[in-house]
Amino acid sequence: MNQRLKTCKNILITGGAGFIGGELIIYLLKNTSVKIFNLDKISYASNKQRIELFLKENNEISNNRYELVKGDLADESFTHSAIQYSNPDIVFHLAAESHVDRSINAPDPFIQSNIIGTYNLLKAVFSYWDKLSDKEQKNFRLHHISTDEVFGSLGQTGSFSEKSPYSPRSPYSASKAASDHLINSWHHTYGLPTLVTNCSNNFGPWQFPEKLIPKTILNALSSKPIPVYGEGTNIRDWLYVEDHIDSLIKVVTEGEIGNCYCIGGNSEKKNIEVVKNICDYLDQIKPKKSSYSELIKFVEDRPGHDFRYAINPEKINNDLNWFPKYKFEEGLYKTINWYIKNLDWYN
Fold it and tell me: Strand 268-270 to strand 235-240: parallel, antiparallel, or no bridges (unpaired)?
């Protein structure tokens, strides 16, 4: 276990009932002895069952090491109380509305959660941190987890880095960009020890079915049409969720305060390529009369659909010696097999 994590007593994770937050909580329960507080409002995409199931299956891990603190960061009074109650040594801030399509149809929750929620968290965390001893202040970290979408859209060449200008193009990415700026400003103005990471598209088991990979898998298994925007030529850099968690631990324990780190999986794929990979693999392991690819249906593109995202991970590679362990296909096949075995969870 890393020395910084060894000295921690309490870690607060906002949005810990989400896809990435849940993976992070389980990693910390497995690999540390700290107490984990999960601050989550439990919305439509939340999943309490995952952590409860993990604790049930791992009796050697004390249930006293995990506590759900249910509430909304948009509630300033609650947020302040939650920080004081959890008494954290590290805060991982993952709570966010994150689905672009939903942000186009209804932007209000994204403003409330991603901007107001982050602002309230910063005020509460700073008030708490400001009263710590010098040693406790030095060891404290607020790690804000963000997205590469804040940088906008790329053409056929180039990649995003920590030096890329912000150019968000959807209500979702604009709200995340605002939260990044708020976090950075609290470091530069008030000295709060913050870290920011901007990651590429995550995927893996337990992901909410509105995202491309789980939606494709589940629609295919149900013999439903598999919708693909436009001609499916939009490109994303894919990152397996276990690799993302590994990078978050690396950054919070070894990253330089006030810095940002771009995290990518070195796996650029066209959307149609991803969908066809899933169909081809299902054809091999669960064959039916016709190919799953016949379910693919091209639909009208969404407004402002960014063409391409790609991450240049040189900074985290060189400064922190972090590299993804999973090849895209390896992570994808693990993910498909998990959904096949866990259809009851989806249903």
Answer: antiparallel
